[in-house]
Amino acid sequence: MSKLSNLYKYFTKYIIIYCSSLDPETLCCACGYKDANGKQRKLTWAKTELKYDPSYNMCPRDILPCIASGSHFEGEKEERVLCAMTWGMIPPWYQANYKKRPNKIATHNSRLENIHSSTVYSPSLQKQQRCIVVCEGFYEWKPGTDSKVQKQPYYIYATQNKEIKADDPTTWGNEFSETDGWKGFNILKLAGIFGVHKTEEGNIIHSCSVITRDSNKVLSWLHHRMPVCLSNEEECQVWLSKHLSTDAAIKTLNDMILQETALTWHPVSVIVNNGLNKTIDCRKKIRKIKK
């Protein structure tokens, strides 16, 4: 069994695979926002130990791009920044080499229902270490009608303008201006939390977990769980705010209602089942698997 397959053995309860293929500079523009003075701003990257590498098939322990308040980073003057984080929260009590932590420590997702009482996630919540995991979309699998029917993977993404095709970057027309902000592919922004781990060498490693909840009618046909999607700038601003208490932040997520038109999806090839497949074909639209 390969090392990657061995990882998947522990992630069978619920796993979402992400697609984040935008290069670091373009991602800074796609995550742009309007600041308190009404100026459109693109983000910068916080200087950290990890490096984000774009991928069409991101698996647990890969490096995800996340947005966090600049106040969490020493010497950072920007209101919010992009930070490369390893996907899977490193428990606050874990002291050994984080790269060699046991596979059974599956912290890639955190359940909204019990995040407050978790010994893994609660310390980060108390420190207001909230983040936004950004991606173009994620993959989810619909079970077959019986055990003999292969699961059909789907690619889920934010609803786009009609001229944009999610699986064809040539239609995106990505551009950014200080007047109009970002014009291009509408990325997904998912509520997350992050931890700060100090290695024996004194290096600081950031790790994150995506917050999930029961699916609503938008995706309940596909799976009973889904990531918490932040639908607009106001929700992003509230979630990142250090002025919001932990209880209020969690209540905010519980009160969010995802509009039925917020997400779109299409079936994709089973090649995405293998985390070693990282090509653009992972998100290409196909016909459904025949029953």
Automatic annotation (TrEMBL):
<dbReference type="Pfam" id="PF02586">
    <property type="entry name" value="SRAP"/>
</dbReference>
<keyword id="KW-0645">Protease</keyword>
<keyword id="KW-0378">Hydrolase</keyword>
<keyword id="KW-0190">Covalent protein-DNA linkage</keyword>
<dbReference type="GO" id="GO:0008233">
    <property type="term" value="F:peptidase activity"/>
</dbReference>
<dbReference type="InterPro" id="IPR036590">
    <property type="entry name" value="SRAP-like"/>
</dbReference>
<keyword id="KW-0227">DNA damage</keyword>
<dbReference type="GO" id="GO:0006508">
    <property type="term" value="P:proteolysis"/>
</dbReference>
<dbReference type="GO" id="GO:0003697">
    <property type="term" value="F:single-stranded DNA binding"/>
</dbReference>
<keyword id="KW-0456">Lyase</keyword>
<dbReference type="GO" id="GO:0106300">
    <property type="term" value="P:protein-DNA covalent cross-linking repair"/>
</dbReference>
<comment type="similarity">
    <text>Belongs to the SOS response-associated peptidase family.</text>
</comment>
<protein>
    <recommendedName>
        <fullName>Abasic site processing protein HMCES</fullName>
    </recommendedName>
</protein>
<dbReference type="GO" id="GO:0016829">
    <property type="term" value="F:lyase activity"/>
</dbReference>
<dbReference type="InterPro" id="IPR003738">
    <property type="entry name" value="SRAP"/>
</dbReference>
<keyword id="KW-0238">DNA-binding</keyword>
